[in-house]
Amino acid sequence: MIRPKTDLNAEIRRLKSIDDLKRGGFSFTGYESDRVYRVEKSETEDNTVISLRLEKRDSPYVKKWDRLQDELVMQKAIVEGGLSWGAFSGENLVGVALLEVRHWNNSLHLHDLEVMPEFRGRGLGGMLLEKVLETARDQKARVITLETQTTNYPAVKFYRRHGYQIDGVDLSLYTNDDAKNGEVALTMKLKL
Ligand SMILES: CC(C)(COP(=O)(O)OP(=O)(O)OC[C@H]1O[C@@H](n2cnc3c(N)ncnc32)[C@H](O)[C@@H]1OP(=O)(O)O)[C@@H](O)C(=O)NCCC(=O)NCCS
């Protein structure tokens, strides 16, 4: 059992079913970011460039998740896969790392990592990521992958501090105009 190196009396435990989230009072909320990456692309026959430039915003970008039913179905299946972790403060579930193994390319996908807002910045995210790494090693995965957004600079910074790097940019994962709308999907990876 892992105990966080924080002031919190919390522990990291395996999640068994999606009901653990409800029972523990966990909900996915979202994030805020005072910086975002502006994405630019130029494409010619002999040179294609996609660039990410960090810019400060006048007011924070606020993201609230809008969970669709098929996302909930996916999360249920992932938790039932048996590799996911929860950060518990007593019986309250205050953080989750939902993990899915992908055998076809020998990767471990971090489908969701979230700590409830009042518990952020106290080491739980780092403790959950340690468990993610341990799980990847147990599974003998070659890489850990995750999707984040150009609008989530705190998450990019957090993952970088733990050794992850931006490894992919998908210019149309959410809509056909993601760059214009200011939110583009980034793949980050930690190669083992
Ligand atoms: C990204 C996230 C999981 C990190 O969890 P966390 O428990 O805050 O992580 P930690 O406390 O281990 O580390 C956060 C870092 O930010 C700093 N920090 C300080 N105050 C903070 C705050 N209010 N919120 C977040 N981070 C804060 C911490 O000092 C720490 O820095 P360090 O690594 O140099 O010590 C969490 O911020 C979160 O749930 N965000 C919203 C959901 C999200 O964006 N998930 C990732 C999407 S892919």
Describe this protein's structure.
With 192 residues, the chain is α+β, with helices and mostly antiparallel strands. It has a single domain (10-191), classed as Gcn5-related N-acetyltransferase (GNAT) (Aminopeptidase, 3-Layer(aba) Sandwich). The protein contains 5 helices and 9 strands. It has helices at residues 19-23, 69-80, 124-138, 153-161, 178-181, and strands at 10-14, 30-43, 48-64, 85-89, 92-102, 107-115, 143-149, 165-170, 185-191. Strands 1-4-5-6-7-9-8 form a 7-stranded mixed β-sheet, with helices on both faces. It has a two-stranded antiparallel ribbon with strand order 2-3. The longest helix has 15 residues, at 124-138. The chain starts with 9 loop residues before the first strand and ends with a strand. Coenzyme A (COA) is lined by residues 31, 113-115, 120-126, 146, 148, 152, 154-155, 158, 161.
